[in-house]
């Protein structure tokens, strides 16, 4: 609220700069004589104003005193390098925004409720070490610091409190044994796990990180056992069968990403089963449409899942462009979603109703009555 009550960019002078530089954990100051560059800086400040404090000056002597020539941008922090100068040649909103986003992250930060979303939104791989005491936190932070500098902009490195957030280890394919180290690729959701049967050492971490950046590590995939037979009506997908079943180019595949503990998923289950039955019970429809589901916490999937249930349609012949379902969780709406967005534009519900009515006409139910 305090940051939002301030102007997006505050005017700083030689009398106020020193105090301004230490007014928050991260302070960004622009030194501009050019009005257009200042407008770009203002736009970037508006994007990040909830997180950081921005200031600007057109005082050339002040820029010289700070060791820069206009135009210039300097980030002041109360951690890591106290002063970081923007070295890019392009003063575009995209470049300046990337500078603020990248340099504001601590070299070795800490994953927690206030920082987790920022790490996820960065798009960079996150390497983090689970520690259960301050001694280990300090020790491994010092070990990892040179690698954090080396891979700045390519990877984020952080510690995480295993006492408070140890359960999160399950999400990144670790056993709850500390200390433990993992690299999580945010976009692909792949996890590279340091062997927990091996002692975590400085030399081991160096080899592990260098191997990762050389592309010679293999991810650890969490996957349930795939059923030997898919007996329908909703096809069970696991991490190991994902490509085969979901990325089948010949079929429109509707898949639900669910969690067993999710109440919304439980309420959807009977409707989703009925939808699956419509396509599963008709051989012609079955050859074109698959209705599937995957227990997401138990299987590593390449999709970005923000909540449960998430439902997506992967059209035949266009698997790189899945369409997320945002309609009502009703049989009719789900059927219409498949019809409107699938390659085959199949109206399964209409076909199912027509088939059902035909059976009732051809095989009328004859009731027997006892004669008095």
From TrEMBL:
Keywords on record: Endoplasmic reticulum, Isomerase, Redox-active center
Reactions that this protein is recorded to catalyse: Catalyzes the rearrangement of -S-S- bonds in proteins
Main location class: endoplasmic reticulum
Residue ranges of coiled coil: none
Domain (Thioredoxin): residue spans on this chain: 215-343
Keyword Cell inner membrane: no
EC number: 5.3.4.1
EC class of the enzyme, as a word: isomerase
Cellular localization per UniProt: Endoplasmic reticulum lumen
Family the UniProt entry places it in: Belongs to the protein disulfide isomerase family.
Protein's UniProt name: protein disulfide-isomerase
């Amino acid at each position: 609220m305090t940051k939002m009550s301030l102007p997006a960019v505050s005017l700083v002078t030689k009398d106020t700069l020193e105090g301004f530089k230490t007014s928050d954990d991260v302070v960004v100051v622009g030194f501009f004589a050019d009005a257009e560059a200042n407008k770009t800086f203002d736009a970037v400040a508006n994007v990040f104003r909830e997180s950081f404090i921005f200031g600007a000056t057109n005082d050339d002597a002040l820029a010289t005193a700070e060791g820069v020539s206009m135009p210039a941008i300097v980030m002041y922090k109360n951690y890591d390098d106290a002063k970081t100068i923007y070295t890019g040649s392009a003063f575009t909103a995209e470049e300046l925004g990337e500078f603020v986003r990248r340099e504001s992250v601590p070299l070795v930060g800490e994953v927690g409720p206030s920082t987790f979303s920022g790490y996820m939104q960065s798009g960079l791989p996150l390497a983090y070490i689970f520690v259960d005491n301050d001694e280990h936190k300090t020790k491994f932070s010092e070990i990892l610091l040179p690698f954090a500098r080396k891979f700045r902009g390519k990877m984020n490195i952080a510690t995480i409190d295993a006492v408070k957030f140890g359960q999160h280890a399950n999400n990144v394919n670790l056993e709850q044994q500390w200390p433990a180290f993992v690299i999580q690729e945010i976009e692909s959701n792949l996890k590279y796990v340091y062997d927990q049967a091996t002692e975590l050492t400085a030399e081991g971490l160096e080899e592990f990180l260098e191997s990762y950046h050389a592309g010679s590590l293999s991810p650890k995939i969490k996957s349930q056992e795939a059923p030997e037979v898919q007996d329908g009506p909703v096809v069970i997908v696991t991490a190991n069968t994902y490509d085969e079943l979901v990325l089948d180019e010949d079929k429109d595949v509707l898949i639900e990403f669910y969690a067993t503990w999710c109440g919304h998923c439980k309420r959807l289950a009977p409707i989703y089963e009925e939808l699956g039955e419509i396509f599963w019970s008709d051989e012609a429809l079955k050859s074109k449409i698959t209705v599937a589901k995957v227990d997401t916490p138990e299987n590593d999937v390449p999709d970005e899942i923000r909540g449960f249930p998430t439902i997506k349609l992967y059209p035949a012949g266009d698997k790189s462009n899945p369409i997320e379902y945002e309609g009502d969780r009703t049989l009719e709406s789900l059927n219409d979603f498949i019809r409107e967005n699938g390659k085959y534009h199949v109206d399964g519900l209409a076909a199912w109703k027509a088939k059902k009515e035909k059976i009732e006409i051809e095989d009328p139910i004859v009731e027997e009555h006892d004669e008095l």
